[in-house]
């Protein structure tokens, strides 16, 4: 496969230092063309913004996930380097970014999407990858397939055993877990923190509980919470009052789910001590049986 044979269909909005486009591969054996995403980094930007370790981790993660055929993550089809750029060709996930959904969403639909997102995260974590940027724009929801979820854009990810780096450099501010503010390499509980932010954003609209005019101010709010200056459950109840929702049992379950996901300490986020020697960099793993049994995810 060469990029010259690919038909470019148009740009895809993205953040960061890459250019993302929608394209299709030529059909073979009378099959329809394959819809793909091409993510291109210019080598000048790679050097200028010190992106080598990020891109190495992104490619390594996609290789680790390449055997998954569930549609919960994109599959890497090809990677091509030229003297001026590096391009990754991946399968296109059907659906729309969660940021484009008409939020706030009904509570039962938020529960369904959160459950599907958790299923995608389980695939990612099982492969030894922490996504580390589960922002609304990186969660593709297929509204025509029971709100199935594909998590995309691994440009901020961490692969177990790979080179360490400061996670606060690349992760979206609104989903940055407190421990990442201290340049701590995250374990999967950082993605559970982002799941809590995601659920809040679906319930109430906006980017989640930590909203401010600039990324720096958002991170300041995260730090204020981490140091005990306010409680998430109090903020959740305030959000319910502002939204005019009745704080019934379903909303109580929703508040508890968000509060556990957004626990200050990673050990309290539906976590268990990591016992997998393949992922020895991780202090904690996610207790999927526990989180999937939460009443909110059964609405």
From TrEMBL:
Membrane-traversing stretches: none
* Any matching Pfam family: Pkinase
Q: Which InterPro entries match?
A: Kinase-like_dom_sf, Prot_kinase_dom, Tyr_kinase_AS
Q: Origin, by domain of life? A: Eukaryota
Q: Which biological process annotations from GO are given for this protein?
A: intracellular signal transduction
**Source organism:** Gracilariopsis chorda
What is the name listed in the Swiss-Prot or TrEMBL entry for this protein?
A: Phosphoenolpyruvate carboxylase kinase 1
Any one GO CC term of the record: cytoplasm
Q: Which residues form the Protein kinase domain?
A: 6-297
Would the keyword Transferase turn up in this protein's UniProt record? yes
What keywords appear on the UniProt entry?
Answer: ATP-binding, Kinase, Nucleotide-binding, Pyruvate, Transferase
Q: Which PANTHER family match?
A: MAP/MICROTUBULE AFFINITY-REGULATING KINASE, MATERNAL EMBRYONIC LEUCINE ZIPPER KINASE
Q: Does the keyword Transport apply?
A: no
Q: Name one GO molecular function term.
A: protein serine/threonine kinase activity
């Amino acid at each position: 496969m060469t990029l010259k044979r690919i038909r470019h269909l148009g740009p895809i909005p993205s953040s960061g230092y890459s250019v993302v486009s929608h394209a299709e591969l030529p059909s073979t054996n009378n099959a329809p063309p394959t819809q793909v995403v091409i993510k291109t980094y210019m080598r000048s930007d790679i050097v200028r913004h010190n992106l080598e370790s990020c891109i190495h981790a992104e490619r390594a993660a996609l290789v680790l996930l390449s055997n998954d055929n569930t549609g919960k993550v994109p599959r890497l089809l090809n990677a091509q380097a030229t003297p001026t750029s590096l391009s990754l060709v991946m399968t296109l996930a059907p659906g729309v970014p969660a940021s484009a959904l008409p939020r706030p969403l009904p509570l039962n639909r938020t529960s369904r999407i959160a459950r599907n997102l958790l299923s995608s995260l389980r695939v990612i974590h099982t492969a030894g990858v922490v996504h580390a940027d589960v922002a609304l724009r990186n969660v593709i929801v297929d509204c025509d397939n029971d709100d199935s979820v594909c998590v995309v854009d691994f440009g901020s990810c961490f692969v177990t055993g790979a080179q360490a780096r400061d996670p606060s450099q690349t992760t979206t501010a609104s989903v940055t877990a407190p421990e990442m503010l201290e340049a701590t390499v995250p374990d999967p509980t950082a993605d559970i923190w982002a799941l809590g932010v995601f659920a809040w954003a679906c319930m109430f609209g906006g980017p989640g509980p930590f909203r401010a005019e600039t990324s720096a101010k958002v991170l300041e709010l995260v730090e204020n919470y981490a140091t005990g200056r306010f409680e998430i459950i109090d903020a959740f109840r305030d959000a319910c009052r502002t939204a005019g929702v009745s704080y019934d049992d379903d909303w109580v379950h929703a508040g508890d789910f968000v509060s556990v996901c957004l626990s200050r300490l990673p050990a309290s986020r539906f976590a268990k001590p990591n016992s997998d020697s393949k992922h020895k960099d991780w202090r904690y793993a996610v207790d999927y049986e526990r989180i999937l049994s939460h009443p909110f995810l059964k609405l």
